[in-house]
Design goal:
The structure holds 2 protein chains of 2 kinds. By secondary structure, chain A is α+β, with helices and mostly antiparallel strands. Helices cover 33% and strands 13% of the residues of chain A. In chain B, 5% of the residues are buried. The chains are: A alpha+beta, B mainly alpha.
Chain lengths: 246, 135
């Protein structure tokens, strides 16, 4: 059987002062993805290798890693796209490494909570009054941004976040925009202080790589720029319109 | 990353290389777009100097125009033009992503937003050309 070389980043916080690379030879089959290869290493060659994964089908967003320098969901990258060359698998860039390919995602989780990614109503109506109706056009305004699976590939691709981790970042802003654009939501005023802060949309320089690497075509770069336009419009209107943006 | 987060368990903070922008074609093109702004600013400065010289009188303005006749100045303006065009074209191409124009429930096609930018550019350039050409 043909083989392929998989080089993975190793790091044990109790032994190593910094990460190093370790190569493994893995049986190659055309239908295998990178996640299959590192699972093969874990199951048959070296059980100490640590990494996250769950669904194997591009839904859970757990298996994001850097494959040959590019942030990818390893369950969605085929070995055949690299074979016979070596594949280098590293943890997602810009995040601290806990062990091997496992990164510390707590910064992202904190930021996600900060932007209040849930439906906010001024007053909840009783269930007996029925659902909040929405037209297909209203749905189309935010649907794309609701596809985010929190895989954090966009943070790994964002040099702004890499240089300054106080940046709220692509996914959290895209998800905030998703709720701001939802006709059923009334929470924009609560999210704007976070989104419109210096660490929010204004830190983004529109590199655009977040949208390039997004496996769900969410286009966080678009969400951030559209939020900039929206907040600028709101601000200008509040200056000339005595009763504000609405 | 706040200290509380770092204290939860020992982690290795991945450093960011100073040459990150050379690691991919997209990063490099982004940096070229950013740098192109400097050349646009350079042109604006030379234009402001020209206006200032004009306010000082005809002799000073003529001297300013003559100072731009050197091969170095000519080459500089060619370089500035190339970067200004790159700046304009790359930002125009991003406009449809930023601007979603709605007419009622319909969204104007992104290509039309892009085309409108080029049309306005063409019209404004034409007006300027006529003004300068006829003066």
């Amino acid at each position: 059987m043909n083989e392929i070389t998989i080089t993975v980043t190793r790091y044990d916080p109790e032994k190593d002062s910094q990460p190093y690379e370790q190569s493994y030879s893995v049986p190659y089959r055309e239908e295998m993805v990178v996640l299959d290869a590192i699972n093969h290493i874990k199951d048959h060659i070296d059980g100490t290798l640590s990494f996250r994964w769950s669904c194997r089908m591009g839904v859970c967003g757990s298996c994001g890693m850097t494959v040959n320098g590019v942030p990818k969901l390893t369950c969605a990258v085929f070995l055949k796209d690299y074979y016979p060359n070596e594949i280098k698998v590293a943890p997602l860039a810009n995040f601290p490494i806990i062990r091997d390919l496992v990164i510390d995602m707590s910064d992202f989780m904190d930021k996600l909570q900060e932007v209040k990614p849930w439906m906010i109503r001024d007053e909840e109506k009783p269930v007996s009054e029925g659902e909040h109706l929405q037209s297909p056009d209203q749905l189309a305004q935010f649907r794309q941004f609701s596809m985010c699976i929190n895989c954090m590939l966009c943070y790994a691709a964002c040099p702004v976040y890499g240089n300054d981790s106080s940046f709220i970042g692509p996914a959290a802003i895209a998800i905030a925009h998703r709720y701001d654009m939802d006709s059923r939501d009334q929470g924009q005023d609560q999210r704007t202080p976070i989104i419109g802060s210096h660490e929010g949309i204004w830190e983004c320089t529109f590199v655009g790589e977040c949208s390039e690497v997004c496996p769900k075509h969410v286009d966080p770069a678009a969400a951030i720029q559209r939020s900039k336009v929206q907040l600028t419009k709101d601000y200008m209107l509040s200056m000339i319109w005595p009763w504000g943006k609405s | 990353m706040n200290q509380e987060t770092l204290n939860r368990h020992p982690v290795y903070k991945q450093p960011m290389s100073a040459t990150w922008w050379l690691s991919s074609r997209n990063y490099f093109l982004f940096m070229v777009r950013e740098v192109s702004a400097l050349f646009v600013a350079l042109f604006a400065v030379s234009y402001l100097v020209g206006l200032y010289r004009l306010s000082q009188g005809e002799a000073q303005y003529t001297a300013y125009l003559e100072s731009l006749q050197t091969p170095f100045a000519g080459l500089s303006f060619v370089v500035i033009l190339v970067f200004a065009l790159y700046h304009t074209v790359t930002w125009f191409s991003l406009t449809p992503i930023v601007m979603v124009v709605r007419l009622g429930t319909r969204v104007i096609p992104p290509q039309l937003v892009l085309l409108t930018n080029y049309l306005v550019w063409l019209i404004l350039s034409g007006i300027l050309f006529c003004l300068v050409g006829t003066s």
